[in-house]
Amino acid sequence: MGKANGYNRRMKNIVILISGRGSNMEAIVRTAHAQKWPAKIAAVISNRADAAGLAFAEANGIATAVVPSRHYSDRDAFDAALMAEIDKHAPDVVALAGFMRILTEPFVRHYAGRMVNVHPSLLPSFRGLHTHRQAIEAGVRAHGASVHFVTPELDGGPIVAQAVVPVLPDDDEDTLAGRVLGYEHVLYPRVLHWMAEGKVALENGRVRVDPGIAGRLTLFGDVA
Asked: What are phi and psi of 65, to 5 degrees?
């Protein structure tokens, strides 16, 4: 997939957006450090000043910023301010990690092919909120998480990779959410690592992957 060109060899900048505790952000930061990615976590940005994940980022020497959504009169104004803050860091990848905002179409198109999200379901099933409740109420026996490119359609962008976990007979929302989250912490860093290496890209609306990772796009969990 064109790894020989200079763009794919240079250090990539990843900007992570959070709204709360940032557990996926923590997993990304720790994995990037342990695996020595050809990428820098350039910034962690939140729409909430009280987001707990900001403290972790600062403690790890990562630039942080807050763009408070409540300070803006509408979504367009907020997204314009957020875009300006993100672009200070020349991002190659923008990773949504529990960022609880619906983004406007101009914002999404500005980062087309560069912005990814992790969603706690096996898309296209159970879009939106309360995915674990939806899965239990639907009676499915397999649930999980999906990493996908972000497009203007909510939770509708091309899927890169998925983690599949069982739904157990005695599961409630909390137990199922905890099981899925553990696999998000593996799946999301894996995809971002591939993007940093130039092994995953969005081309003409379709996900293109290096043949060497084609067999690793689905992560299967067990009951442990």
From this structure: -155, 155
**Kind and range of the H or E element at 119?**
strand 115-119
Among residues 89, 119, 143, 193, which one is catalytic? Answer: 119
The pair of structure tokens assigned to 106 is 């101009």
Return the sign of the alpha-carbon dihedral for residues 80, 155, 51, 221.
negative
Strands 93-96 and 63-66: unpaired
DSSP for 154-193, please give it.
TT-SPEEEEEEEEPPTT--HHHHHHHHHHHHHHHHHHHHH
What separation, in Å, do the N-terminal and C-terminal C-alpha atoms of the chain show?
36
Distance, in Å, from the CA atom of 202 to the CA atom of 77, rounded to the nearest integer, reads 28
Cα dihedral sign, 170-172-178-182: positive
Catalytic-residue membership of 119 = yes
Gap between the Cα atoms of 96 and 113, Å rounded: 13
Read off the pTM: 0.94
Q: What is the pLDDT of residues 71-118, one digit of tens each?
A: 999 999 999 999 999 999 999 999 999 999 999 999 999 999 999 999
